[in-house]
């Protein structure tokens, strides 16, 4: 298999694990390791200079993960651009996971503001990974603006409902020239496998691991599921048939 | 994780890969290895003393896999019992995958004949792994008759439609005291992961690997998917929520 | 449209509404009327000579509905046959809705006992409408035994989960020569419409009407849904397409 | 039931049938009548002064239907506004079904242009019924701009795939203060019933009727399905239960 390439960098792992939702630093560390991820997201917005933020950042450094700051909790293009600039200065990276949400109840993206923010961030030389809804047109517009990856949701953040509209995800993937990363809404391993089978290049998770009963076990589950789904996408699955097809023969020849 | 125990024997792998549908011995060997399976099914019914049967059997011996003869293409309890006795003699194993199908068009199990055959085979000291439909009552009756494992279908053999009725599979698993092995109908990795998440103890596949465009790749895909699904079942997935839940915080504390 | 014909009798309505679950005689009467049904089921098993049974029966007579006694709460072929004979004597009808359930927790049919009871009841000159699971083989066996109609479940009784396995219902309908009546598990109007679109000849309901918040409104909802689903089955729906197709043209010619 | 009110006008029918896709004027007339619709859409864009457009318009007048011109085949806010102005002049109505699509292959809406067009059209005193994707945030933004109704798609135009994401439709309906009209993608009666059960105020169809094998039969099917789905939404369906619930009793009392 080819490595995943985003913004000119290669990744062996196709699972991106966020730090959001974690409740214990030790568990977070073990879960990050078990997931096999090479990149992790952190929310700059909620920076607390006295507190946990520094500890999480130290952990990311120790694990040699690429840090992907996000603009979580930004409600407008202007806020998102400001947050991205702060992140670039603080973390010395021009990578940004762009998130502009419409309100703090649905946490759904505001696509008009997201498109505007993407335009500005690309112009400011950011490598933009844009969180968005599952609308194939918006995905294409984000790509046309120069985003390095487009990250449609499977379901609203934190719901664990999986991929509510596989048809749209497949439509997005079919036309995309940049990596499509399924982001948000996944609940369990089969959801991640399905995302990869639909043709996504990677999967981004946070809640589904960090809020599981056993985050480390679930991190390993997702690592396997992403690998399995990727291989299944490459392996050329059997066609779906309406009617049965005997398997216990070898083209008419006998077995055993 | 605990090993899978069927009929007193332990298995590390929870993926059982059949030989059915294979069209090339080399590919079959590589696929069996890639799948990590420790047990494989063969159809005694189609024994051809001159031909491929012997080669397949030699392969199974060389790979040190447990052989699980099946009664594929039997249409009655009587035929199935006769076939099982022939298999016991020829292969020196009292393990049998019981399959009694209603016709060679749908390949669906005839549950009345299956129950009768199970009764007779248990009385004859077979270790019976019984292929059946997804009816929770029939599954329980097979267990009550003494079957070592019950193997409900996800969808008709060879269709690749996945698990048509997850509700039934979950109902079967919830009440079962013996291992439930999802058998038939799976098409791709996420189907296998889902089977394990629903609580199945293992997955049995043939067509989905052997008839894929790249059987070896797909065998590895299923190996990962079964492992991932099993871990997800153990890991305690997040609950499904109707509404969003922010992940980019650590219980209110800041991250980075 | 042709009328529905079961056991030589014609029905204009394709909705059969049961009395089960009703909590108020007046509501039951209005719901039966609103549903437009011409036949209704009653449970003989629970006959209480002092009580409500007589009132329900009088209501059925007044509304001139065909009575269809059922063998609800029978756990064996023997019980079902005895109950059917009692019903024939008490209600002067040789029609029987055959129900043999496996236990009073799942309320799922015991198909072995159901098949045996069907064999005996047909031999005793009953017109048998047999409640069963959604296994296409069992459905065919019931038809081969001489049942006048086969009544697969959509989901377990009283769950309101709709049709859990449309693939099986379609497979049953495709091969059947007798009417297939979807029985049990429906929750709302679209479930009933779907049953008809899959090719069922009729729908049987009780809980979904009698336990709704407004039984009379829901009875009318189901009346429309069954009519709509039937017409859709006859009308030749548009094919499902993966890609869009413009509608705002008349084969290239202009509109308006 | 209350009538449907859009832009201050009341409608008894909750089914809006378009003229798009029709291939025969007589069939179109009969289908419009069978559907019971009181309003129909026409595409101004494709006006052909010599031809069918006039005949269709005469038909709409004769049937006394409210005409709802649409901006089909407009690719920008500017085009849509111009088209709406032409329609207002030609048809003497300030009602407009706003459609701005992104390309003529997917026919998916361009939500940025749609929002801009809605803003301008409301400012010009149009009664705007806005076709959009199923994003709850965009739906709310259209409402906030002053649209009289918001019309999310079930699936891409002409696909007949039904409602790909019922969760989103339900989320849109839950927050909306204006009527939500399910528009595009429906294939059959149960799809329309489901739309109404999810809480939509009405359904708009064209292809599903006009391109069916028997448009008049299908028009009647949808009329019933919309009525049935609406009643089911009002009737208070039974809850979904994971486990069975006996129906053949009246709270413990007997039923003949």
Biggest sheet architecture of chain A:
3 strands, parallel
Portion in strands of chain A: 15-25%
End-to-end separation of chain A in angstroms reads 35 Å
Helix-strand pattern of chain A: EEEHEHEHEHEHEHEHEHH
Task: Summarize the model shown.
The structure is a homotetramer of 256-residue chains. Helix content of chain A is 40%, strand content 16%.
Could you walk me through the main structural features you see in this protein, from its secondary elements to its overall organization?
Mean pLDDT of chain A is 91; it is low at 249-256. Chain A has helices at residues 25-35, 52-62, 77-91, 111-123, 136-144, 166-175, 189-197, 207-210, 215-235; strands spanning 4-6, 9-11, 15-17, 39-43, 66-70, 95-98, 127-132, 149-152, 181-183, 202-205. In chain A, helix 1 (25-35) runs parallel beside helix 9 (215-235) and helix 7 packs parallel to helix 9 (215-235). Chain A is 40% helix and 16% strand. In chain A, 66% of the residues are buried. The first copy, chain A, is globular and about 60 Å long. Chain A starts with a strand and ends in a 21-residue tail after the last helix. Chain A contains 9 helices and 10 strands. Chain A has one domain (4-235): Aldolase class I (TIM Barrel, Alpha-Beta Barrel), CATH 3.20.20. Chain A is of the alpha/beta class and 256 residues long. In chain A, the strands form 4 sheets. A 3-stranded parallel β-sheet of chain A has the order 3-10-9. Chains in contact: A-B, A-D, B-C, C-D. At the A-D interface, helix 4, helix 5 and helix 6 of A face helix 4, helix 5 and helix 6 of D.
